[in-house]
């Protein structure tokens, strides 16, 4: 009982020590791999976000350019010139024909749309 039991006890302690060391090493290695993977995913997401932001900036630039072109096309001088060049024989409107809208046009249009949706859903019974 003296020598065999001491060897077994020593072997059991050594086996447990090795097992716990390997388990700790595996756990720490797993955390390291997860950390590297998360940083990689963060980097990929940041790159995609930057590309999207660049597209947004480009689209805003194009939209601003189109706004300028539309303003030029709708200018009074350009419309008069088109009227004459296409021989449309249109007259300029009289001041009393012009209706000036003082309220917010977008809000008014939204309310109109919302009211029509509400009345349509009310009429259908939903």
Can you tell me about this structure?
With 126 residues, the protein is mostly helical. It has one domain. The chain has 3 helices and no strands. It has helices spanning 3-73, 76-85, 105-124. The termini are far apart. The model has no long low-confidence stretch (mean pLDDT 88).
Approximately how much helix is present in the residues? over 70%
Poorly predicted runs are: none
Order of helices and strands: HHH
By DSSP (H or I, 4+ residues per run), the number of helices equals 3
| Overall 3D shape | elongated
β-strand percent reads under 5%
Q: Number of DSSP strands?
A: 0
Tell me the radius of gyration. Answer: 38 Å
Number of domains: 1
- Quaternary organisation of the protein chains: single chain
- Summarize the main sheet: none
Q: State the end-to-end distance.
A: 87 Å
The computed structural class is: mainly alpha
Query: What's the average pLDDT?
Result: 88
Q: Can you describe this structure in just a few lines?
A:
The chain has three helices and no strands. It has 126 residues and is an all-alpha fold. The protein has one domain (3-124).
